[in-house]
């Protein structure tokens, strides 16, 4: 059976980008067609300046939101990365296969490191090695497919390279995974800055729609979205990033196609209004379910506990065989 793994990092409140690019597909499609694991990758949240209490709160919130979005513990495994030691165990072995040059070429590293330096801070070593831990997340489970948004493509490519290299050097150990991306809304852009990704950690502004935003806030943010000069509603992400972003969001909500949809509009105002309505309607049921789940924190804790147990059982054999293949002496039994 196909194995699917994906994750979300608790560095901020989940956004419409996370939902349309990844989470919605996990819930609607992926968990039903494969053996799927979805992980709150909390170790990754420690790669930049962080507040320990906030990371804990965001991890709990992300888990609750994944369940509220429709992930069903009967259909898939939902767990927290730091509850399963195999991720960190495997990461070190993969560091011994990856090169520093490879790490320095990662776009997200370059962008985030530049931002840290600009703020006058220092860059944590873990920010550089982050993609190796991500590769470990994926490879530990014999993953075939990794459903992600566009921004993670380079990291999944690196994961493939590391798997192939390890297998060539030390014998076949890892499945070589591939990224899958949604047809529409693989990169939802910031509503105020439509040439930048809508990111949960790097922006707390009017350009980011959060899954838990009140309907009025969602409407306000979308109605105030930056559009482009010109009047025509045309789908052209290069020349008209603002309008194209709205068309992508609306198309993703309706299950239609942004280019076709553009023909139905003659004004930016009407497009914004329909997009706002569609997003409010999309998020309503998730928010209702989130509220119910918040009233029952022991249910969420139970799901995460079971999930970690299942995940550990799945990861252990692969990680043990990697330890052996690379030349480490197995501990003697008894
Ligand atoms: P993260 O937490 O930034 O994002 C979680 C998922 O949401 C997608 N996404 C978007 N999709 C469309 N438009 C956007 N604006 C947008 N913003 C985010 C991301 O592509 C991702 O699929 N490194 C990963 C977490 C991770 C992971 C893994 C993912 C760690 N280990 C193993 C898959 C497999 C990250 O930072 O995602």
UniProtKB/TrEMBL annotation:
Enzyme class label: ligase
A GO term from the CC aspect: cytosol
InterPro entries: aa-tRNA-synth_I_CS, aa-tRNA-synth_Ic, Rossmann-like_a/b/a_fold, Trp-tRNA-ligase, Trp-tRNA-ligase_bac-type, Trp-tRNA_synthetase
Catalytic activity: tRNA(Trp) + L-tryptophan + ATP = L-tryptophyl-tRNA(Trp) + AMP + diphosphate + H(+)
Pfam families, alphabetized: tRNA-synt_1b
UniProt entry keywords in alphabetical sequence: Aminoacyl-tRNA synthetase, ATP-binding, Cytoplasm, Ligase, Nucleotide-binding, Protein biosynthesis
Keyword Heme: no
Single GO MF annotation: tryptophan-tRNA ligase activity
EC assignment: 6.1.1.2
GO biological process: tryptophanyl-tRNA aminoacylation
Keyword presence, Aminoacyl-tRNA synthetase: yes
Binding site for ATP: 9-11, 17-18, 149-151, 188, 197-201
Positions with a binding annotation for L-tryptophan: 137
Compartment(s) of residence: Cytoplasm
Motif residue range(s): 'KMSKS' region: 197-201
Motif 'HIGH' region in this chain: 10-18
Subunit structure: Homodimer.
Family assignment from sequence similarity: Belongs to the class-I aminoacyl-tRNA synthetase family.
Role noted for this protein: Catalyzes the attachment of tryptophan to tRNA(Trp).
Protein's recorded name: Tryptophan--tRNA ligase
Source organism (scientific name): Streptomyces populi
Lineage, highest ranks first: Bacteria, Bacillati, Actinomycetota, Actinomycetes, Kitasatosporales
Gene it is expressed from: trpS
